[in-house]
UniProtKB/TrEMBL annotation:
The keyword Transferase does not apply. GO terms for cellular component: cytosol. Residues 212-231 are annotated as: Disordered. Residues 1120-1383 form the DUF2428 domain. The keyword tRNA processing applies. Residues 637-940 form the tRNA (32-2'-O)-methyltransferase regulator THADA-like TPR repeats region domain. This is Uncharacterized protein. One of its GO terms (biological process) is tRNA methylation. Residues 1385-1555 form the tRNA (32-2'-O)-methyltransferase regulator THADA-like C-terminal TPR repeats region domain. It comes from Jimgerdemannia flammicorona.
Amino acid sequence: MGKLDKNKQLAKTKKIPIRVNPAWYDIIIEYKNSHPDSVLHAATEALEKFAADADATWDQQTLYLKEAELVVDSITEKALETRPNKSSKSATSNIRLAPPSASQIHSVIEPIACAAYFAAPEVPPRRHCIPIIDICHALLPSTCFLREYDHYITHDIASPYAAQPVAQKALAIYTTLDFSLGTTVVRQRLLETIRYLVECLGVAVQKAEAMIPEDRESQGPPATAEPEAAGSQTSRALILQQIMSDVQYTTKTLLALLSRHPGDLRPLFDIRSAMPEDHRLISRLLDYSITVCTHARLYTNECGQLSGMAIAAVLDLLGDPEFVRETTLELFFVAPESSSPRAKALIQNLGVIVPADVKGELGWLDDDAPMLNIVKGLLANLGKPVLLTPIPKSLQFLKKGLISPRYPSNLHHLLFTAIAHFCSQSNLDQQCKVVAFETMAIWLTTTRDLLQESNDKRFGTPFTNGFVDTIRSVLDENASDQVLGYVWNLWDDPVDAIQHKVCIRTAYRNLPVRSIFETLLEVVDIRSQIEDTRETYQMFLGKLLARLMRMDWHRKVKFALLSLLLPKIGTEPFLAAQPDLVWQTLQVHSSLVLAPRASSLLISFLEQRWQETKSAGGRSPGNEDVKQSREEVIEAWTQLWLSSLCRSLTSSSDVLRRNIVGHALQAIFKICPESFWKVVHVLERREVGKWSSPLSEYMITDEAYRMNALIAVIKVGRSLDLIEGDSYANDELPTNPHQISIQTLLTAIHHVDPNLRIDTLGLICESRKSTAEVTRVEIDLLRAFLPLNMNCTSPDFRQKFSGHITKFFTRLRGSLFAQYRNYQSRLAYVQKNTQKPQANIQAAQAESVAIKATIDYAHNFLLWLVEHIAASLYPGSSYQRISTALRLLSLLIKIFGIDRTPAPEGFAKAAEFPFQLPIATVRNVKLLLDCLTNPFDGNRMQAYEVLVAFPCPLPGFEEREEVQRLLWWALESVTSTRAGESDGGAIVFRLIFVKYVVGLGFDLDVEVAKASELVGTNHERGSNVRQESAVFKISASEYSDIIKELDSNSSNAAPDILAFAHKLCNLLQKQINIASTNLLRAAQSHPMHGSLLALQYLFSELDYNSALVKDNLVLWRRTHDQVILLVNRVCATVMDVLSNPSPEGNMPASFQEMEETIEEMIEELEEGDFDGTAIRESGPKHQVILSCCWRAVKEASSLLGVILLRAPLAVSKKDSSAFLDHEDIVDSGNLFRNLLTSIRHRGAFSAVYPSYVSLCARLLSAPQASFSDLPSIWLQDHIANITSSNISVTRRSAGLPLCILAIVSGEPAYRKPLLTATMKRLVKIASEGPADNADQALDLPQVHALNILRTIFMDAKLGTDILPYLSDGLSLAIDGFSSPSWAVRNCSVMLFSTLLQRTFGTKKTKDEHNSMNNLTSREFFTRFPHLLRYLLRELEIAVKQLLMDQQVPRVHPGLYPILTLLSRLHPALMDESDTELTMTSFVPLVMSCASSSIFKVWTTPYGFFLLKTREMTARALVPLIASTNLVPTVIRVLDSCSLTSQNELHGRLLQVQFLLRGHLYNVTSHEVMEDFVTHLPRVIASKLDILMPANPCNITRALMLDIITEFFIDSRWINLHIGDDKQDLIKSIAQKFADVRGAVFNQCAKEMFNGDNNKPGLSVGHYLLRQQMAKIIVLSVWSGLSYLSDILATDAVMKLLGDDDYEVRLVTLELLNKYMVAGPVTRYDFYTSTYYPPDRYDAFHSISLQDETVVLNTHN
């Protein structure tokens, strides 16, 4: 299906002016001649200017039409009344012009306005014609518009509108329906209009059908063809695009006519009374629309949808609802044996045939789903009576699934089943998925509206009265879960449009089509109201809320759905389900992706809570009581979030703090501004004792970040004007509670944390009003800030710095304008009112003095800033200081100007500014010129941009001699071997070219050299070089002839521009000549990249539309040809080096003999004009040559890319405006291709790629087929090269993948046939196994295909376009692991890694298995359904091989990637309710891997590296087990554990460990936790024999201890649990875990403190076992679980610190440090949300360490 977005063409249409008909001006001339005494009305004069200016631009024509519109709009009050929506600007005008004479209206105004309306190519100019036409018709009714409309809807070639595209005509008719006169005219010609549009539609459809390949049966869809077939489509892309536009807008207009005039059309379309010609009209319209729906791959998405709606609109007009229902079923749904006689007769009479490809299996199951558009159209455009008319029970349906699980009761029911089928179809095209979910949203909206009508007796109809019973059977619990499943699975879909259809409000037919989720809730709500089952509805919402709360906090869908659920149930259920909701939501702000969503939920929650709290707390009567009540309301509301917010703001996580401040803080303070000062006081520690919260002393998480939080909060308050600019006090603790200490801000300015300093700057610069006065305190603070922060190394700091300073300068400028205006008004008052009382005059004078002092203070600050910037640009200054200084200078220029300060918005353009800053001075120019040679690109470009803004000529460089010396100074840099210096010199060339050559016409010499030196010394060059020089070199006589020709034919400036370009070419030519004979000398003394870059800058500044270029077209063409030839010579000169198999160490053969005579060469060069010292110091010869070569190619390709991108193209240069023809493009494209496929140096071919991309993108969008065909031809050649056996390139296929990527990524967005064909071809090549006799010295086709696929998958520009191929890519990668070729295996590994990143996204945390970095299994297999069976099949093979022979184990190469992929999934909430996506088949296979004898494998017979096979198996098992099955699965695994096989025991224990981690820390419900606490201790107790010394394996003993430590002793997973029953669960843990804890502690203490067992190194893994035992002892002692006295506990810990094992001592120290730094720890027998220090107990039983016995006091 086509990929054209809605209205994409309209959104990107150029502003095309109206084609003025000369006859319009003749009309005016004729009127003036026939009425010589008549005075033209102002409207007539405006139209005269419009008609006379045939070459006017779109903007100029719009001004003419606007002028006529405004004049006509001011004629009479009656005209104004006819346009009530017109702005009051004209309505309130005091000028009322007399209406023009009847003769002017009849003869001039109305004819021209009507003709211009229909001639306009776009909607906006038509809008300006409508009021003119309306008022002319109101003043003098006529048939002028009707006559013009009749000319418009005709195929007569004599019509003035015959040349208009069909789409333009259709849109004009559509626009005509938007005003009263147009609607009347269209209604008068309704049948003629429809007939004309149907004829146009038929022509467009026939044209489109002609573009379908003839061999339709053998050929698949066009998008699946080979690249050459796809190329033919690309060559006709623009023709097809125009056809699609014609079909789309013609159908759209037809649909509007059919929908808006049913009363007029129903008698004409009723089959019982329609005429034969009407029958033919209906038949043709249906036939064309069905044809468009049939060829879904050919037509765009919008064409298909509109055609489906047009079909439904026609069917709805054919007769009564029952007949329309029968006809609809007959056409699309029922089998022939169930036909309705009268519907069948109608269809035969009309001759309408629905192809089997549409209504058969293919129409329902194909990936483009032709029936989907028809289903959507039927739902959207059939009337409600038709949808609700019952369906007979005896029908046989073509699609059997439509009557499952129950027979449809009506069309509305049938359509739901059809839509659900499409939504559940896994192979559906991405754009079809969008349509499917949009259709589901429409169905739910229609259902909601019908239920509302049924509930409202006033609007109830016989069709809606029984609708509730139907909906109860259609939208039952299973169907509701199915719809919810769409929301769950596709909310995070990578295709944004699908997300929007399931979660964002949109508009359709002017009806609010809400999200699927929200509309479903409304349907259930209304149904519960009708059925009086509100309790059931509330239970439904409660279960939904509980389900969402159990969902992982890092799922985007969670926050959006909770936000939609919040208004329906209020905040209390939220707090009951999640008491720490605010805290959890704030913590999610640590994710950059989730922060906006989490903040949206938080703000919605707090805002609704505020409203609820106000409603509950504002009931007390009396003013005092109400005031007190508001304080209580604020207090209660603030207590809900204050502690969580302050703790989060003082967290050590910079991302968390920044996201909370950026997304949530401002919105919170907007809800209740008084809460701002409460937060400030807490952070300042002013009134902490006031708070009644038991956690008040813990409101500050980390004291080190309290200042950060305070400044951030104050900054937000300043942006809301909660703090004014004068709200600062000098006192360290201001007595006024609403003031901030300046000392606090100064401390922040000098703080070591750059984030705190930049926040302080934001506070200084922030203000809600752009013209708010800048106080002296703010200026002083900024003056203190700038010197300390010019050199910050953080890019984020500098970016924010620029934004804050821009706000400050803008506000300062507005403030100064306002103050100077006030100053002038005060002076004027004093001068004009000398007779006023002296007190008034003195007050005005005093005020003017104060204002002047404020202005002078700001002026002095800005002067200081200019000096400070200049002082920062000293030689040797750091990159950061220079960058900041240049940025400040550019901001000063932008805001305060150089010659004149621009007035801010709202001020008069002539407003006067009190001063002008001295920026463009001689000193500053010299400083900036020095910055042009800065080593950093960014600084050089900033300096250049500042200098370009300076006046021309630059101060200090007014004379030609000065500029010439500057140019020669730049030449030294241009010819430097250092890239930075040459770039700086090229930028100076660019500056001189713009300012002096183009701006002032200076004739400058590029270099100082004798004419003979330009060619080089003849004894150094051979005859071939001399011949080449004759081709590329312009002789002196030729150059004189060129200059003479320029002088005689052009303006003065043009010769200088051309001469400058030719001189640069001559310099480059000289360097090429030297490089062609002595590459080492060229690399060391005459590098080419600087000259190439200078030429690149020159051509990037060239204005191809200027007269300087157009008047010298022939000469500029010759210049372009010369530059292109020079680029080719540069590439040819360096190709031998860059295409060498080892370019890094390559030296051409001609230089090998120099190895022996290098000293002689240096001595010879030292005697000449070259710097021998520089040569010796330039580095090794091969490095110097390589650097020169790849930089030359980089700049040469960039130069050629600039020319190809900017220069006008034509098939032939006979076109007067063309600079490049088809041959130039072909040669340039071949050059790029040769460079990309031949160069081995990665930096070199990577530098060529951007230019090739821009060329391909331009060609693919070119209107000429000869140009748009080229990329497809090149692509075909590249694909052919892949399969050839004689290519050998560097690793990762070198530049070959970039060649193909450049073409497929440059295709227009609306259709990508080349990408589709290429991907299918590459997948086919990569899936073929390499030949047995393949030469491993050459790169295999499979290697190239895999490398190209990897490059395409990595490209972000293609985005969602490559998503359909991810399944094939993963299959290829996994299969490639088993290839006998090492190269294929290597490429498969890289492809697999790339696809993992593309599938799961970039890692948000370091742990790749964190839920933030994963998808649920349901999400993954919903997106990639084909992988489910593939992975299952491959896993079966791999497991079978793994378990085949335990004595000689062999790991299948595909096992590890499959386990890796499964391990990146995490459990889904809804897996158990879906049979298609169930993961149960994987469970036995993965669990059986536990018995593998391989834990870590470093190598296999195939050479693979596999690590931790059993651990990966355990990780892969986690998403396969639903949370509800966690405990039974763990029990089953533990029951299977035995000591007979240590390998299997280790695997089983790993599975237990990862299952518990994956579920208890993520999505587990209270029921699962309770089940775990109840049943697992008994099972663990029965398996304690694994811990005993009878188990000879220390590894399994240590693993068992690790499990018990994490889940039974530490038990931190309980802290993630929510709900009121948490305390009961904690008490249950303390009771039921006591036996296990006691037994494990006894055993650990016994073994650790037993002298015999305390000997290190007794067996393998002994230290791991003792390490785990030490953990248990320390944790039990520290947490009070051991009930030891202080003395015994200290003795135990001291013994561990003195243990012989280093690992035991280390883990003990780490745990002690962890607990001491963290402070008090959780006591599990107390309330866990409050933290207490460990209590001391007086009564303990003793532990005798000498007797090696431990006695524990157990719980009673």
